[in-house]
């Protein structure tokens, strides 16, 4: 061999064996379908419970909307129910301020779903993604038997991604979110191992699970409640005059949400679960009631994850009302996280970003709402999760019907959100008291 040509280094990658890989992909597809069906069932139950508690029940005594005493009572009872679930095996699942995890097994799923169901039905300001992740991982761990036992962590990611796709909708967004989270948890050295053992099964599970949403042939799939911003004005090309307002929206959104999350971390574990959750529920209820009195909008614009009210906020024309909604939503979000209501962190942050973008649009006639909203959404996700690609995809895909140019403000918002999250994290060191220690003293 010529001295000018370096020898090819021997490959240390394991040989490809189609049998085990195909078995893993088949298991991923099965778990993907089961995970999405389980997640769909939970979202339907939670949605029906919300309708019963917040719409049907007040109508029993002729009320057109929930009276103040009902708002406070429901949130207080919901907080007590979450506190009770935390005492069960599994402790109600992961705290929403903990990093993304894929380790909820069958023994912990009961308390996890109970805590999340009570949280969502009561209207606490967290999202539904955490219990869906838990459903997917629990199904995966229960299914990983025999030769698949060693692949249980990978199958847990598969089940989690397929279940989460029920509410996120687009499988590419879900894939990026899951995979970015997995990278932050630690990676492996070999490209082939990464592709075949981690990435490809997740893609297969996502595709299989997505069948339950879009349907096959004459079957039209299962109805869900995806993020919907309503009708959007066209935005086919970037307008330079929109970039400065988009930057301002991104900066305000990121600073607000990063500060709220850090405040929630300071609050976490400082109060015993039962009094903390009940008091936190009452505070969230008071914020919703005060906002309804000031703006005339229903309490739902402050309560819940915010998914169902994005279009409402995009359609409001009062900058003052939108700023009040954003402030109340962010505060209720921080309280819900800090006292330990169980759920996810993504969707309330997106709602705050949309409200601030809509307020800026109302205050700046001639500005393009899709551009501002793309920046606000991406900044919110970046500030809450610290995942740049996930933030860009959320900002782009939610506003994509307006036109491809929303990509630019989405990138701008994601960069601002992640930088602000890192900046705040460096300057605010939080050493929270362990929640279980508070639990043992309560």
Task: Give the CATH H-level superfamily of the largest domain.
Answer: Clc chloride channel
Which sheet architecture does the biggest sheet show? none
Query: Overall 3D geometry?
Result: globular
Low-confidence stretches: 432-442
Continuous helix count? 16
CATH class membership of the largest domain: Mainly Alpha
Q: Which fold name is given in CATH as the topology of the largest domain? A: Clc chloride channel
Query: What helical percentage do the residues reach?
Result: 55-70%
What does this structure look like?
The chain has 442 residues and is mainly α. The protein folds into two domains: 18-214, Clc chloride channel (Orthogonal Bundle); 240-430, Clc chloride channel (Orthogonal Bundle). 68% of the residues lie in helices and 0% in strands. The protein has helices spanning 18-59, 68-86, 106-122, 129-143, 152-168, 171-184, 191-214, 240-267, 273-295, 310-315, 319-339, 346-363, 369-385, 388-399, 407-427, 435-441. The N and C termini lie far apart (75 Å).
Put the structure in a nutshell.
The protein is an all-alpha fold and 442 residues long. The protein has helices at 18-59, 68-86, 106-122, 129-143, 152-168, 171-184, 191-214, 240-267, 273-295, 310-315, 319-339, 346-363, 369-385, 388-399, 407-427, 435-441.
Protein topology:
Elements: H1 18-59, H2 68-86, H3 106-122, H4 129-143, H5 152-168, H6 171-184, H7 191-214, H8 240-267, H9 273-295, H10 310-315, H11 319-339, H12 346-363, H13 369-385, H14 388-399, H15 407-427, H16 435-441
């Amino acid at each position: 061999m010529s001295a000018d040509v370096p020898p090819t280094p021997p490959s240390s990658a394991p040989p490809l064996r189609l049998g085990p890989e195909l078995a893993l992909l088949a298991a991923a597809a099965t778990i993907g379908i089961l995970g999405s069906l389980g997640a769909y069932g939970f979202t339907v139950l939670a949605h029906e419970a919300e309708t019963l508690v917040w719409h049907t029940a007040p109508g029993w005594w002729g009320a057109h909307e929930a009276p103040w005493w009902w708002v406070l009572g429901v949130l207080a009872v919901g907080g007590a129910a979450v506190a009770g679930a935390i005492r069960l095996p599994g402790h109600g699942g992961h705290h929403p301020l903990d990093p993304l995890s894929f380790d909820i097994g069958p023994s912990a799923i009961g308390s996890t779903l109970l805590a999340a169901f009570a949280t969502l039905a009561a209207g606490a300001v967290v999202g539904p993604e955490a219990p869906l992740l838990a459903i997917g991982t629990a199904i995966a761990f229960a299914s990983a038997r025999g030769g698949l036992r060693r692949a249980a962590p990978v199958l847990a990611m598969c089940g989690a991604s397929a279940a989460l796709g029920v509410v996120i909708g687009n499988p590419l967004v879900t894939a990026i979110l899951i995979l970015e989270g997995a990278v932050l948890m630690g990676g492996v050295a070999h490209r082939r191992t990464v592709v075949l053992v981690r990435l490809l099964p997740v893609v297969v599970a996502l595709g299989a699970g997505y069948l339950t949403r879009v349907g096959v042939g004459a079957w039209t799939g299962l109805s869900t409640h995806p993020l919907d911003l309503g009708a959007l004005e066209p935005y086919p090309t970037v307008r330079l005059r929109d970039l400065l307002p988009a930057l301002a929206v991104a900066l305000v959104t990121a600073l607000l949400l990063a500060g709220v999350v850090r405040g929630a971390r300071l609050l976490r574990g400082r109060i015993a679960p039962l009094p903390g959750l009940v008091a936190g529920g009452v505070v969230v209820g008071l914020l919703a009631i005060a906002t309804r009195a000031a703006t005339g909008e229903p309490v739902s614009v402050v309560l819940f994850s915010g998914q169902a009210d994005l279009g409402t906020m995009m359609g409001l024309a009062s900058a003052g009302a939108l700023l009040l909604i954003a402030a109340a939503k962010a505060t209720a979000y921080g309280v819900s996280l800090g006292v330990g209501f169980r759920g996810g962190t993504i969707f309330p942050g997106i709602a705050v970003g949309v409200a601030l973008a809509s307020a800026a649009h109302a205050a700046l006639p001639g500005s393009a709402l899709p551009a501002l909203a793309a920046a606000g959404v991406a900044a919110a996700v970046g500030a809450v999760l610290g995942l740049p690609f996930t933030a860009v995809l959320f900002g782009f895909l939610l506003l994509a019907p307006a036109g491809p140019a929303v990509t630019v403000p989405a990138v701008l918002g994601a960069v601002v959100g992640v930088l602000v999250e890192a900046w705040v994290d460096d300057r605010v060191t939080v050493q929270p008291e362990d929640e279980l220690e508070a639990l043992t003293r309560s």
